[in-house]
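User: Fold this one for me? It's Putative TIM-barrel fold metal-dependent hydrolase.
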Amino acid sequence: MAIPKKIWANSGDSHFLEPPDLFDERLPKALADRMPKSQKFDGYEIVTVDGQQFRRNMPKPGNTGETMSDIVNKRAPGANDPVLRLQDLDEEGIWAEVTFPSIGIWASSIKSRELMASGVAALNDWAKEYIMDASPRLLPTASVSLLDVDDAVAEVRRCAAMGYRAAFLPTAVPPGQKPYHYIDYWNPLWTALEETNTVLAFHIGTEPVDADKGFGQVFRGPGGAVLNYTQTTFGGQISTMQMITSGALDQHPDLRILVSEGGATWGPFLGDRMNEGYRQHGKYVRPQLSKPPKQFLYEQVYASFQHDETAVGAMQHLGWNNVMWGSDYPHLEGTYGHTQKTLHELFDDAPDDVRRRITVGAFQDLFPEVGEPPADEY
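Assistant: Here's what I get for Putative TIM-barrel fold metal-dependent hydrolase.
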């Protein structure tokens, strides 16, 4: 079997850096001042959201004299420029990509219904004009306000009419809202997504945060950095279980879920575990489903991964065909600058049909309109 020199792939996960004046340009000042904003310093970042402040550590510049902005711009030239981005994608061997917000992800921590609804609409209008209209290869996800289900439904339908094919939801709802498995409350949203053929896109590590509880550091002390990074993956798995066990996917068989950046080997394990609980504790199970939980996962849930060497086996040997690769451009844990090295490490020993399914086919299930990437180069 000949090994390609260049493997072309679609990406189930990337991010776009919004301009710092996005909300100032599109919202009244009283609202714009409360939308998420970021200030970067040597070794840390301050994010302000609706009167709350969050501090998080960032990589420190080395001894080169470069600022943090210099490092970010050098690392990924197309992080906030669609023209340069397409050049980056061509160089890396990426054809089409799903793009999530960056600072916009913090909108899930807003507490005002009016601010949230106005803010996500402004973000979605900008992404339509700046990202979607730049190229059919760029598929931005629509942000949605979860502070009121009617607002969420209205924004999903508005964005679908604008051409959006996916809607981004955080992996947990804002405090005070009902969790996703309360199907009677959220069913209008699942219906809107299904009827508009909009993919429900969960991105890991996007749970709303509260300034009083701190940000993102569950573990401290030895191993804390790796522990905190690893535990962010669990939110996508919990959201998936909520959608399956509540009967949401049973009632909406055409609804598709994408869990981005959370790896993929968890799918078969999670399916087995849910099946065991559904079977062994059957007398306690409500609602009753039309088929085993694992079958819903295998049929309606997709997952993207970057480097996980076991993810290929989840598709090849464990039967989960909905595994797709993602670059996580332009983040540090992504593959920018070494995409081809990563793809070769993952797929040089894999059969052609497995490589094709994970790099192209699963993505095309969800977004067939992106067409075919260039052929792998031999």
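One thing worth pointing out: The first strand starts at residue 9 and ends at 11.
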